[in-house]
What we know:
Shape: globular
Order of helices and strands: EHHEEEHHEHEEEEHEHEEEHEEHEEEEH
Strand order of the largest sheet: 6-1-12-11
Low-confidence stretches: 70-74
Helix content: 25-40%
Mean pLDDT: 86
Number of helices: 10
Largest sheet: 4 strands, mixed
Amino acid sequence: MATHIQLDALGGIAGDMFIASVVDAWPELADDTISAIRAAGENLGIVDISLLDHRDDVFSGRRFANVENPDSELEQHRTLNDIESILRESSLDSESAARAIAIFRILADAESEVHGVAPENIHFHEVGARDSIADIVGAAFLIEKLDLCSWSIGPIPTGSGRIETMHGPMPVPAPATTRLLRGFSLLDDGIGGERVTPTGAAILSYLRQELGDPLTVFPAAMNLERSGVGFGTRTLPGISNILRTIFYEELSDAMIGDRVGVIQFEVDDQSAEDLAVAIDILRAEERVLDVLQIAAYGKKGRIVFHLQVLCRQESIDDVIKLCFLQTTTLGLRWTVSRRATLNRETVVVDDKAESVSVKLVERPDGTVSAKTEVEDIRNHGDHSQRQTRRRETEKRALKEHAPKKS
Length: 406
């Protein structure tokens, strides 16, 4: 079952807010999350970790608290190698450790851009502290458990002003945070201070790296299954300092929903011969899903060709340019349309010293239909012989490859 996570950074986002928000939605993961952080920080002096119930005048949710051992040694300015060694040598499970290391590498790359130093030579100051390590490990553990397929996030508050760091005063968002937020939708809601921490921005960048860019629309009709609220440590004027997390699941495994670009235009001054070449070029483009050509009557009673091009949503601009380059049209129309497709699988039927591909499709009622690829049987005599061959291969494909009902 495909799952989707929606993040709403009303107050902002930080590592502790992400942990609190997810655990508020999945309270059964609270004890395991704390155990994972303790396993990673067994040599760091982290002694008291808790996920507390919390509320303000509007929301109730969770707050993540991490208390360090006051008798432990002073914080070190850890490098990326230091942190990787700490995580690899700990008793944290290897999958969560790998995710945590990946998040720290994202941070190191951003700091590298800011300071002009190789990532392995970056010294983490605030982000290398025990509490930040705990935040990133907890987030990595929860992402590992969630098994997400897609994600989305609303506009992220930028904040404003300055913060004090080991490098001195820094503008908000901090330079590394700014680099990590490139490509995300941001807003200035007039409330200052640091609204997105480097760890929060690194978690967002990691989700984008693992799941792709955040979606602006859901990939399919989905059920809302869980929601959670995580509080930050600051009190903001006139707004709750929360990160809300909502989890969705697809309504049906048989149908896959997404959105596609639909580009339409007419051509009345290009020869049929040259237009056929243009359409072949469009169809060969991997970002184009299909091209439909229809003869129609246009203005002044002219015979025109109406073209409809389906393409991947994220490639609309590039495909529009290709349409202008390959045809004589001077203008076109485009929309984004929702589509529903059925789960399908192509199997190969081998017999009579040849292979024939057959597409199996699962219908919403659980039945499976079969469709032979016509290109594989085009040389099987006349129409009647091809039809016989098609029925034979489809019957065999359903018998040998269709899933058996329990």
